[in-house]
Amino acid sequence: MGRPRTKPLPQTSVDSNSSDASSPKKREQLKAIRELKGLTQLELADLLGTTPLNVSRWERGVTRPTPYFRSKLTKIFGKSEEELGLRMPLLDDSETSPQTSALATSASPSTINSTIQNSQNLREAALKSSENSISSTDARSVTPSSALPVAPILDSAIPDAPAKPIIGREQELSMTKKRLYTGGKAALTALNGLPGVGKTALSITIANDTAVREHFHDGVLWAALGPQPDLTIIMSRWSKQLGIPEGNLPEESDVYQWADEVNKTIGLRRMLIVIDDAWELDHALRLRVGGSNCAHLLTTRFPDIARNFVEELDITTLYELNDEESMKLLQRLAPNAVNGYEKEALALIRAVGGLPLALTLAGNYLRSESGSKNSDIIHEAYEHLSEAAARLELDVPDTYVKGHPSLKRGEHISLQTLFAVTDRRLSKKQQAAFYALSVFPPKPGDFSKEAAIAIAHCGSRELHTLHETGLLEDKSENIYTLHQTIADYAHLRLIESGEQHTIQNRLIAYALDTLKQHRKDYDILEREQSIILHALDTAHALNRSSELIQGATGFTPFLLVRALYDHAKTHLERAHQHALSTNNKRGIASTLLYLGELNLRQNHYKEANTYLEEGLKLARELDDRELVCDLLDRLGGVAWKQGKNQEAQIYLEEGLLLARELKDVERICNLLKALDLVADSMGESEQGLAYLGEGVNLARQAGNREQLCVMLMNSGVSLGE
């Protein structure tokens, strides 16, 4: 439906009693400072990430910014909340409203004290409320607690409680209930997390919880929002359940007045209001009705909405289930397909990243396929679920659930439909960036902001939007990740767009450029490790032989230093096979060099020697002197490790002669260090020091601080011995 018109909320006795809140001077401070800085309302709204309408309402004193926006305003203008006119002092305890005084003529002392306290609580809540929130209960329409209905109001829209307790949410359930019980400001609580992570399921459990209903003895209201909620339908249902006479109801289009009427009727009742699946902050704030005895629970996939609805500390972020919890869920849903098939079940759990909805859909499918306990059928079912497209298309039958607030009425719940709702709200540029990011390794893999911008050809704004829509997660500053199921969805869309190979080529090019530019900067290579390994997998899958050989040999030194031998072995063997199949002789010799070094590191001397001798023979045929030099260096190392000092010396001296001809300081220094070790083993320490002395002079002349440091350190060790 269209956005209802925005207007100031009706002023209550709470507002009229606060001279500070209604003071023109206070209201105009923010406007004056904004104009002094030369900003329009639109420009300030853009800086804040809100609308000009909200800025206007703040400046007119209609509403007050939330703590999130107050913090941003103080940073933009470099002034305190007091200087901006945003701080509201607490009311003096001695103040009472005219309504409180009127009650004194006809009420007992205990009633008067209770009413005064309630009035003060309501006034304080109103003064601290965020923009767009419905004002706290008007003291004039508060019904004494004795007149409130005894029977609790349980919204007919509350979904049925799950048959069994939800798995893996015990801590979050306990924490959320405690926050709701606290009352006042702390009773504003939000659940945030990925689509399908179980926010609604946890809210349903809370709304049906016996202890929760006992605490909120006046009832529980439920609002299922989604992308396009009809707030008038929700207000109409609430009004009927609260017993509001039809004559008191405003026009259907006036949501503000309707909310105000619901607000007054709730009064001092102790109720829980659940606002599920909010897609717009304005929608959530309009439904934040009730007095100080009420608590509100919001669920949303959008971090920004959660931050603007409650304080940061009152947000509970739900994460995926771990392997153990995921296995319990699958066992509950499909015991015949899990018991005895734990390996297949674990692979499925990892493929869907422990996402509760994905596990539920897969579990339902496995249960339907495992009724006969036929092992062949069960294996076929797991094989079917190994395909991303199959997992995304699994849906819940109409008879299983009442629907999902994010989806249209009658639309089946599946990962595909759930992600598509968010996808459709993105701009073309945001969609292109989202799909492109699927070429990165999914969670637990990650990628840097720099890599994302380079490969998706997008800017920081697009990445921010994807993060705020709940599609993109941040692991740390400027490091992102895509959940496995979201990456699967985006990758299928990328294939449909016809841009898959273009984006994959960018990934490979980025990895090779990173290796070229930062060959020895291991901090950067550490950061980009996940991307580079994924790029090597991609090059292998696309038969990009030249790029695979270049990337594998370029990344192996880092992998060996980090002792990541399995990764090194996988990619070197693949690169070697590609070199053989394309008759790339230099590629063959290069991969043989690093396969030899890998085996040397693992003390597999026989295998190392075989690889290196074969590589040396080929390098000599190619007259590739740099490669010959490196192979002689490694062969000398293999011989020395085996105690063959004379053989080692022959290899190393030949290599040193060649390195001097090449005038390659790096290679000369490496060979001199190796010769020092051999000389020491042969009892020729003076000759060893001579090698190191030559290395020190060379490194100093070349300005090679790294080699100089190593040479001086080795010299010190030799002299000490």
Notable features of this structure?
721 residues, alpha/beta, 434 Repressor (Amino-terminal Domain), 6-stranded parallel β-sheet
How would you describe what is shown here?
The strands form three sheets. The chain has a six-stranded parallel beta sheet with strand order 1-3-4-5-2-6, with helices on both faces. It has a three-stranded antiparallel beta sheet with strand order 9-11-10. Among the domains are: 13-91 and 103-140, 434 Repressor (Amino-terminal Domain) (Orthogonal Bundle), CATH 1.10.260; 152-318, P-loop containing nucleotide triphosphate hydrolases (Rossmann fold, 3-Layer(aba) Sandwich), CATH 3.40.50.300; 323-395, no CATH class. A hairpin with a 2-residue loop joins strand 10 and strand 11 (479-481). It is an alpha/beta fold. It is built from 38 helices and eleven strands. 61% of the residues lie in helices and 6% in strands.
Question: Summary?
Answer:
This protein is of the alpha/beta class and 721 residues long. The chain contains 38 helices and eleven strands.
Helix and strand arrangement:
Elements: H1 13-16, H2 19-22, H3 24-36, H4 41-48, H5 52-60, H6 67-77, H7 98-103, H8 109-127, E1 153-154, H9 170-182, E2 188-193, H10 199-208, H11 210-215, E3 219-226, H12 231-242, H13 255-266, E4 272-278, H14 281-286, E5 295-300, H15 303-309, E6 315-318, H16 323-333, H17 335-338, H18 342-351, H19 356-369, H20 375-385, H21 388-393, E7 395-396, E8 413-414, H22 415-424, H23 428-436, E9 447-448, H24 449-456, H25 460-468, E10 473-476, E11 479-481, H26 484-497, H27 500-517, H28 522-527, H29 529-541, H30 545-561, H31 565-581, H32 585-601, H33 605-622, H34 625-641, H35 645-662, H36 665-681, H37 685-702, H38 705-720
Parallel strand pairs: 1-3, 2-5, 2-6, 3-4, 4-5
Antiparallel strand pairs: 7-8, 9-11, 10-11
Helix pairs in contact: 4-5, 12-13, 16-18, 16-19, 19-20, 23-25, 23-26, 24-27, 27-29, 27-30, 29-30, 29-31, 30-31, 30-32, 31-32, 32-33, 32-34, 33-34, 34-35, 34-36, 35-36, 36-37, 36-38, 37-38
